[in-house]
TrEMBL record:
UniProt subcellular location: Cytoplasm
Gene transcribed to yield this protein: cysH
Family indicated by similarity: Belongs to the PAPS reductase family. CysH subfamily.
Protein's recorded name: Adenosine 5'-phosphosulfate reductase
Catalytic activity reported: [thioredoxin]-disulfide + sulfite + AMP + 2 H(+) = adenosine 5'-phosphosulfate + [thioredoxin]-dithiol
């Protein structure tokens, strides 16, 4: 089964765009549509050179706004922003340079109500085009095929089915994607560049917030009145699916609340 690739019928700031086969499931929010890039993808060699040039020009610690400007200038209409809806800082930073930019949200079917509420608020109030990226199967269909609570038995497979593969499909056609990955979040993220080449997706990966601390992130949100998931203020500094995220104590590793009890530390979309 392949995802729909019809143009998005939504306008910036309007919730409802969805990408993926399960978008048409009963109860799905909004029309089944995607938000394809507005111009053809350039050859991989050209994109690689752009990534190398961006890394050279921006260095290791350029301001997020400068990184966003570079991204928008070099990938007009072919840039996607990934957002977990823990906060809307990255969509805000990018949309200052690219109003109406596509913001991809991995709608796994297991999110906290607060996360879905944040997504809806972002779609309703910000000048961005929120696109729900949904898995091939609904939760019910997956449970019928693989049994209940796959996340508790085999989170790697669950993440692959509900996050990694849907994102792989959603990114097809874009030339670059921006993520909110920060170096201080985890040992696996300390070397995150501002701009790099994403071998997995064969596209440019841009991490404007890489040098930021959590304090800088929250200060930006406060200063600019950017939406933050209320769970962040309730002991959840890192937010994933409700089934796989627990509250952490003050001073505890922020990501220790993710997949607690498993050796797993990443869902796989940034590997
Ligand atoms: S975070 Fe948990 S529920 Fe969500 S996709 Fe991964 S394993 Fe499944």
């Amino acid at each position: 089964m392949t995802p729909a690739t019809t143009p998005s019928t939504t306008s910036p700031g309007t919730p409802g765009a969805q990408l993926g086969p399960a978008a048409a499931a009963p109860g799905a929010r909004g029309p089944q549509s995607s938000a394809p890039p507005t111009r053809p993808r350039r050859p991989v060699t050209e994109l690689r050179e752009l990534a190398e040039r961006g890394a050279r020009e921006l260095g290791h610690d350029a301001p997020a706004q400068a990184v966003a400007r570079w991204a928008v200038e070099n990938f007009p209409g072919t840039l996607a922003v990934a957002c977990s809806m823990a906060d809307a800082v990255l969509p805000h930073v990018i949309s200052q340079e690219a109003p109406g930019v596509d913001v991809l949200f991995l709608d796994t079917g297991y999110h906290f109500p607060e996360t879905l509420g944040t997504r809806d608020a972002v779609a309703a109030t910000m000048d961005v085009n929120v696109v729900d990226v949904v898995p091939q199967e609904s939760v019910a269909e997956q449970e019928e095929r693989l049994g209940a609570d796959l996340w508790a038995r085999d989170p790697a497979t669950c993440c692959r089915l509900r996050k990694v593969e849907p994102l792989n499909l959603a990114l097809g056609g874009y030339e670059a994607w921006a993520t909110g990955v920060r170096r201080e979040e985890a040992p696996t993220r300390t070397a995150t560049p501002l701009v790099g080449w994403d071998e997995t997706h064969q596209m440019v990966k841009i991490n404007p917030l890489a040098p930021w601390s959590l304090e800088e992130l929250m200060s930006y949100a406060t200063e600019h009145g950017v939406l933050v998931n209320p769970l962040v203020y309730d002991g959840y500094p890192s937010i994933g699916c409700a089934t796989c995220t627990r509250r952490v104590a003050p001073g505890e590793d922020p990501r220790s609340g993710r997949w607690a009890g498993f050796s797993k530390t990443e869902c796989g979309i940034h590997l």
